């Protein structure tokens, strides 16, 4: 994918690839690696891959910016299971990461706090 197309679909690319995490933060390292591997190897004309690239760009950007989401992602990532018969493991992992984000968005918007004045 050309750099112009990449920035069009993944506006947070440089923010994500230049993210500095702690040396022992293996999960962040793997997430950024998955992101780079997926985004840099998609075909320009595959609409599903471009949608997935835009979604994973949004998810990893949220992971960098939101401490609460980062902790939730770290808790949920250990539960991802990939069957050995799958031909594209990276795509399955990316889909699961996006599902974790969607679940987090739904759960976090449902928590509405009603304050009472005493």
What can you tell me about this protein's structure?
It is a single chain. This protein starts with a helix and ends in an 8-residue tail after the last helix. With 118 residues, it is an all-alpha fold. Helix 3 (26-40) packs across helix 6 (89-110), helix 4 packs across helix 6 (89-110) and helix 5 crosses helix 6 (89-110). It is built from 6 helices and no strands.
| Secondary-structure element order, N to C | HHHHHH
- Main sheet: strands, sense, barrel: none
Parts with pLDDT < 50 across at least 5 consecutive residues: none
Binned strand content: under 5%
- Tally of individual helices: 6
Average pLDDT works out at 86
**How far apart are the termini?**
59 Å
According to DSSP, the number of beta strands is: 0
List the topology elements:
Layout: H1 3-9, H2 13-17, H3 26-40, H4 47-65, H5 67-77, H6 89-110
List keywords for this structure.
single chain; 118 residues; mainly alpha; 6 helices; 67% helix; globular
Brief description of this entry?
With 118 residues, the protein is an all-alpha fold. The protein is built from six helices and no strands.
